[in-house]
């Protein structure tokens, strides 16, 4: 009987997590989108959008009267892109909510995060637009570029904390010291990879609005585009939380945690508006050279 | 007469039936073709009866001995099944069953019309020969029977390859034969060496004598064995023969051989390196003058095998060749996982054998179905087929997710285990190498699915229909297996843990949904539930919020203000990863191809030299030869 | 010749009775007015006024307006200057590929009446004969202040539920198609199936069809989507 009530409370916790973790991720992500646009505006000496602009955009996109679908896979692509991120958020521990983070871990999470990209790639493929296909081919190449330093960082971090579970890593950091102080080189390489992972300049060749017409997004209208806007906010949130969990000791409480994740994503966002863009092969070259080198030296220190 | 005897009898009688009907009753050949899956069902049933080998309970034996014995040169020959053999055998028979199902329907009719009734019977015969010889190999209980099985497997594969009369296929088959012969020679030399050391070719005696070998003795032995077996597996640097040979084989052959044939090399490696010489020894045997030991060299061979063939696959422009190259590359994961030799990694490597068989067979089937409908597997001539062949597309998507190793399909679980053990073992570079292989696989499988099924539909393909049911049913079944074993890897881990015990490795701690580890395990049931929860929420957001979307024609598309028509093709598939190739294109130097060519010219030069010597001065050479032999004989007689 | 009176500015006549639904509609309209993605079709000299309007001097983003690249994503089609016959074909194609609610803004006098190209044989003079234009911003060229004021006018219209010119294109397609055919010849056809869309979204009216759509129907290449179906 005791175990039954125990498992019932477990179940109810998980249900609450299932509902709230993606919801929080969405709203925090919207704030991050706002922050990005505000940052870009301030760096360009503009005023920037009003506070609720991300919401206006999403409501507008979902309220379009007509929109184009190129077929079932196009639609499923958006569903998978959004759904994959919703599922990933539940694997990311935040203060007070662990979701099912103990069932996965960092390796699982890094592969989970590829599902939305794959879904979107399939959806874009069905649009029959070569701009989209070129965009996807560049995006996958970019993934090949930034995932190698990222995975080295993951390896180093997991070796250092002797755990692949994000919860275990956060516990370790809260008991000892933040990862960024114990592994500064890995943290630097991770930040570099994060820039590519978030698809921000100088690594946004796959969007390239002026040459391939925003690449994967070229045929996305109305709620299709709205789905991608939602996905973008999840993406920023995920990047921030992941980095915070790996290097900044997670969070004891929400204010501290939010401060950390906003700080983390503000760095790539600031960098983004100070640089032009690398070509695909140059991006691969840069990513395989500097962050990989730094990360490998960092690994030598933790091993 | 036990189950193993029955299994051999069933296989041999199947062979006899096919030969008799093919030779004497050609009219009945079509019936035979329709019923051929039954032959494999019979074998499968017998294997299921032997399942006590892996589902061990109190009274079950760890081995089933065949009652059939032979004596050769004073050595007894025996055949037996243990958990390891059973595991490989069930994959073999199921793969053959699926290939036979695929072949027995419309595909076979089409093949018969295009070639001849005889050729079709030969195809059935080839499949049966392959299965029988592989079962014979898997049942081998000593080195002589191993060698016999090995040769049968080689020749059966060759038989299957030459069924395609095209020049490129014949050339590939001849190349394979050269490689296989080299491997067989190496194997023979290794056996001679073993006989020299231990005085017997019985596994039990050899195992005993192996335990007190010096590293100077073990290293050449390992090299000879690994060369012999790795050639079959297509491991670096012997990877050149496999892809073309498998890709150009008629579809059922490609399905079967792509799924399992090359894994016979892995089986033999496991038998020798794990069962006879324990893997534990290798970590202590250092390669002279380097920092490496035998284990790490083997691991790096595995890692390079994942990378190099995968990136060769990325450059292929033909679906079958792309898949076949991946077949070579995925072998690297199996070797890598096994060589780490801890409980997680070795289970991952073994699980990958099963997983790879499922999705590789499914992928070859989808490509065969596309070829059946369109007549080509060339990426430049395909595209946009998803609206015409949606179920085939679905199977391909399931399988490529498996091949790329993304959740929730089965390939993810086995690759996860390999990564995890590399992490636990503290092997950063091997870990990165494995991930590089996976990333290359993701790139390459997207190219496969995009260039076949996505993008613009060609005008000439607008009336194409879905693949016929006889092809679809095996495909869909395989897709189901890929998904179910991905969500519940425990079903297959049930087989693998006894295999680990049989080859002397620590067993894995697992449950139905995944792996239990103290520092972060894996639970696929939860992960899949969460994933589908995410998809459900995504679908609710997409379909319930927002207006309707109209499906539009593919020419109603953004083209910078250009008016799209059927006259202008608006599709991107050629040189798909152009940006990446700008960087890494120069790294494809074809070094191995050049090495192969150099060896070929060296050998032909030497043989011509010898021939010319002999022909030019026949009597002189004869005298020289006799004198040398005489001196040697005297010397041995006097001082030996 | 048509006059500016042809610009259809009419109130939404299917007002809902449920007060909550009205609030909901108003919320949607508010959001739509505050988030406008524009596609600038820079045909002429007016384009030069857009960069200052977008960048730090005038900063359109504070109004929620930002540039977008493809017609699929855009809400506003900004035609910034004279439209030659050849260009007009692309403008129409682009307009039809945009997704409703969509708005057209004609910047510069050239789009209003041909401007300094009044006598040109190759220039389409009055843009709203071919497309429903929401707002004209006259001037040669209008300053960024004028552009922004025009955009604010559009925003006010949308907020009040008056930005419905796009419906006119479906409801009076025959009229627009007639003018297009007059200019481009009877074999004129765009890749977008406007009539099909009008049917699908229930936007058709009496004047959707007419003799011009009949002419189109005679030579039209079929534009039905490749449906995904399982046929053996």
Q: What does this entry look like structurally?
A:
The complex is a heterotrimer of chains A (303), B (640) and C (232). Chain A has 303 residues and is mainly α. Chain A is 74% helix and 1% strand. Chain A has one domain. Chain B is 70% helix and 4% strand. Chain B is globular. Helices cover 39% and strands 11% of the residues of chain C. In chain C, β1, α2 and β2 form a beta-alpha-beta unit. With 232 residues, chain C is an alpha/beta fold. Chain C is globular. In chain C, the strands form two sheets. A five-stranded parallel beta sheet of chain C has the order 2-1-3-5-7, sandwiched between helices. Chains in contact: A-B, A-C, B-C. Chains A and B meet through β1, α3, α4, α5 and α6 of A and α16, α17, α18, β5 and α21 of B. β1 of chain A pairs parallel with β6 of chain B.
What is this entry, summarized?
The complex is a heterotrimer of chains A (303), B (640) and C (232). Chain B has 640 residues and is mainly α. Helix content of chain B is 70%, strand content 4%.
| Total number of strands of chain C | 7
- What is the architecture of the largest domain in chain C at the second tier of CATH? 3-Layer(aba) Sandwich
**What sequence of helices (H) and strands (E) makes up the elements of chain B?**
HHEEHHHHHHHHHHHHHHHHHHEEEHEHHH
Across the major sheet of chain B, the strand order is 3-4-5
The oligomeric state is heterotrimer
Backbone CA Rg of chain C: 18 Å
* Count of extended strands of chain B: 6
What proportion of the residues of chain B form beta strands (DSSP E)?
under 5%
As a percent range, the share of helical residues of chain C equals: 25-40%
Distance between the termini of chain C: 56 Å
Q: What does the largest sheet of chain B look like? A: 3 strands, antiparallel
- The succession of helices and strands of chain C, N to C, reads HEHEEEHEHEEHHHHH
Q: How many independent structural domains of chain B?
A: 3
The low-pLDDT segments of chain B are none
Looking at the structure, the CATH topology of the largest domain in chain C is Rossmann fold
Contiguous helical run count of chain C: 9
Q: Total number of helical segments of chain B? A: 24
- Reading off the top of the CATH hierarchy, the class of the largest domain in chain C is best stated as Alpha Beta
Protein structure class of chain B: mainly alpha
């Amino acid at each position: 009987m005791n175990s039954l009530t125990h498992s019932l409370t477990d179940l109810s916790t998980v249900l609450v997590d299932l509902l709230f973790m993606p919801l929080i991720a969405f709203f925090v992500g919207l704030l991050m989108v706002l922050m990005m646009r505000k940052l870009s505006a301030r760096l360009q000496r503009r005023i920037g959008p009003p506070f609720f602009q991300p919401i206006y955009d999403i409501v507008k996109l979902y309220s379009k009267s007509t929109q184009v679908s190129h077929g079932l896979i196009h639609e499923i692509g958006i569903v998978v892109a959004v759904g994959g991120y919703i599922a990933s958020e539940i694997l990311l521990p935040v203060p007070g909510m662990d979701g099912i983070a103990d069932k996965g871990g960092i390796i699982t999470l890094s592969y989970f995060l590829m599902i939305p990209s794959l879904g979107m790639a399939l959806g874009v493929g069905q649009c029959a637009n070569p701009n989209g296909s070129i965009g996807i081919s560049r995006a996958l190449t970019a993934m090949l570029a930034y995932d190698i330093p990222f995975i080295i960082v993951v390896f180093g971090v997991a070796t250092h904390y002797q755990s692949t579970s994000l919860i275990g890593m956060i516990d370790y950091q809260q008991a000892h010291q933040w990862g960024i102080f114990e592994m500064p080189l890995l943290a630097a390489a991770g930040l570099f990879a994060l820039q590519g992972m978030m698809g921000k300049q100088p690594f946004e060749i796959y969007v390239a609005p002026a040459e391939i017409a925003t690449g994967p997004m070229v045929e996305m209208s109305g709620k299709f585009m709205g789905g991608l806007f939602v996905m973008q906010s999840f993406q920023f949130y995920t990047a921030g939380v992941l980095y915070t969990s790996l290097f900044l000791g997670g969070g004891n409480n929400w204010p501290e945690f939010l401060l950390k994740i906003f700080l983390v994503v503000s760095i790539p966002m600031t960098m983004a508006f100070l640089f032009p863009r690398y070509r695909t092969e140059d991006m691969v070259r840069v990513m395989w050279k500097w962050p990989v080198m730094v990360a490998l030296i960092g690994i030598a220190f933790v091993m | 007469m036990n189950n193993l005897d029955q299994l051999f009898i069933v296989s041999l009688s199947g062979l006899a039936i096919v030969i008799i009907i093919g030779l004497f009753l050609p009219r009945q050949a079509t019936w035979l073709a329709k019923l051929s899956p039954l032959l494999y069902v019979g074998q499968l049933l017998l294997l299921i009866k032997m399942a006590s080998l892996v589902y061990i309970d109190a009274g079950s034996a760890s081995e089933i001995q065949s009652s059939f014995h032979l004596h050769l040169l004073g050595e007894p020959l025996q055949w037996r099944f243990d958990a390891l053999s059973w595991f490989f055998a069930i994959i073999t028979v199921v793969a053959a069953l699926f290939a036979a199902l695929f072949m027995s329907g419309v595909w076979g009719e089409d093949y018969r019309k295009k070639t001849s009734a005889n050729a079709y019977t030969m195809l059935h015969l080839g499949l049966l020969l392959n299965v029988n010889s592989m079962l014979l190999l898997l049942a081998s209980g000593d080195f002589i029977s191993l060698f016999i099985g090995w040769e049968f497997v080689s020749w059966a594969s060759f038989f299957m390859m030459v069924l395609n009369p095209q020049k490129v296929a014949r050339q590939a088959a001849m190349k394979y034969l050269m490689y296989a012969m080299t491997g067989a020679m190496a194997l023979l030399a290794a056996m001679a060496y073993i006989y020299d050391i231990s005085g017997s070719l019985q596994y039990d005696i050899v195992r005993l004598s192996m335990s007190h070998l010096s590293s100077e003795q073990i290293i050449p032995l390992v090299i000879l064995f690994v060369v012999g077996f790795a050639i079959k597996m297509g491991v670096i640097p012997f990877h050149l023969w496999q892809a073309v040979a498998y890709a150009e084989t008629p579809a059922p052959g490609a399905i079967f051989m792509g799924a399992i044939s090359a894994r016979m090399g892995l089986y033999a490696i496991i038998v020798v390196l794990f069962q006879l010489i324990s893997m534990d020894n290798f970590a202590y045997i250092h390669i002279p003058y380097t920092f490496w030991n035998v284990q790490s060299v083997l691991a790096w061979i595995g890692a390079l095998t994942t990378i190099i063939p995968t990136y060769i696959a990325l450059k292929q422009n033909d679906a079958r060749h792309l898949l076949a190259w991946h077949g070579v590359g995925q072998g690297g994961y199996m070797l890598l996982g096994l060589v780490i030799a801890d409980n997680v990694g070795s289970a991952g490597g073994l699980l990958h054998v099963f997983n790879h068989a499922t999705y590789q067979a499914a992928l070859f089937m989808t490509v065969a179905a596309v070829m059946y409908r369109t007549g080509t597997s060339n990426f430049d001539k395909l595209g946009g087929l998803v609206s015409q062949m949606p179920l085939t597309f679905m199977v391909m998507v399931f399988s490529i997710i498996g091949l790329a190793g993304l959740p929730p399909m089965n390939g993810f679980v086995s690759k996860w285990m390999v990564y995890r053990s590399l992490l636990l073992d503290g092997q950063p570079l091997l870990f990165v190498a494995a991930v590089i292989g996976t990333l290359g696989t993701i790139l390459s499988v997207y190219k496969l699915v995009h260039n076949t099924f996505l993008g613009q539909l060609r005008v000439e393909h607008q009336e194409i229909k879905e693949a016929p049911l006889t092809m679809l049913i095996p495909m869909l079944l395989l897709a189901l297996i890929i998904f179910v074993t991905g969500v519940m890897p425990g079903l297959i881990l049930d087989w693998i843990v006894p295999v680990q015990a049989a080859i002397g490795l620590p067993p894995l701690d697992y449950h139905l949904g995944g792996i239990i580890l103290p520092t972060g395990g894996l639970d696929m049931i939860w992960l899949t539930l969460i994933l589908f929860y995410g998809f459900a929420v995504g679908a609710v957001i997409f379909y319930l919020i927002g207006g309707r979307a109209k499906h539009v024609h593919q020419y109603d598309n953004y083209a910078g203000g250009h008016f799209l028509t059927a006259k202008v093709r608006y599709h991107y598939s050629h040189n798909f990863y152009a940006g990446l190739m700008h960087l890494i294109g120069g790294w494809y130097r074809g070094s191995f191809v050049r090495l192969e060519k150099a060896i070929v010219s060296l050998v032909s030069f030497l043989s011509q030299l010898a021939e010319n010597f002999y022909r030019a001065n026949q009597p002189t050479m004869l005298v020289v030869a006799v004198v040398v032999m005489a001196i040697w004989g005297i010397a041995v007689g006097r001082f030996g | 010749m048509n006059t500016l009176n042809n610009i259809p500015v009419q109130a939404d006549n299917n007002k809902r009775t449920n007060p909550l639904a009205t609030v909901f509609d108003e919320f949607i309209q508010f959001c739509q007015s505050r988030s406008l993605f524009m596609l600038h079709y820079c045909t002429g000299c007016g384009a030069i006024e857009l960069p200052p309007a977008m960048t730090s001097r005038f900063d359109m983003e504070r109004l929620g307006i930002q540039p977008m690249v493809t017609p699929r994503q855009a809400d506003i089609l900004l035609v910034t200057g004279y439209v030659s016959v050849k260009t007009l074909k692309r403008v129409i194609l682009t307009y039809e590929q945009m997704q409703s609610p969509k708005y057209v803004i004609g910047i510069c006098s050239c789009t209003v009446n041909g401007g300094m190209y009044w006598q040109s044989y190759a220039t389409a003079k009055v843009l709203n004969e071919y497309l429903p234009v929401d707002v004209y911003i006259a001037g040669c060229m209008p300053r960024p202040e004028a552009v922004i004021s025009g955009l604010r006018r559009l925003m006010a219209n949308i907020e009040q539920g008056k930005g419905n010119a796009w419906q006119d294109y479906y409801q009076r397609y025959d009229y627009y198609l007639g003018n297009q055919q007059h200019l481009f010849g009877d074999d004129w056809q765009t890749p977008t199936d406007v009539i099909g869309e009008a049917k699908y979204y229930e936007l058709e009216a009496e004047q959707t069809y007419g003799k011009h759509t009949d002419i189109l129907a005679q030579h039209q290449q079929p534009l039905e989507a490749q449906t995904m179906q399982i046929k053996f």
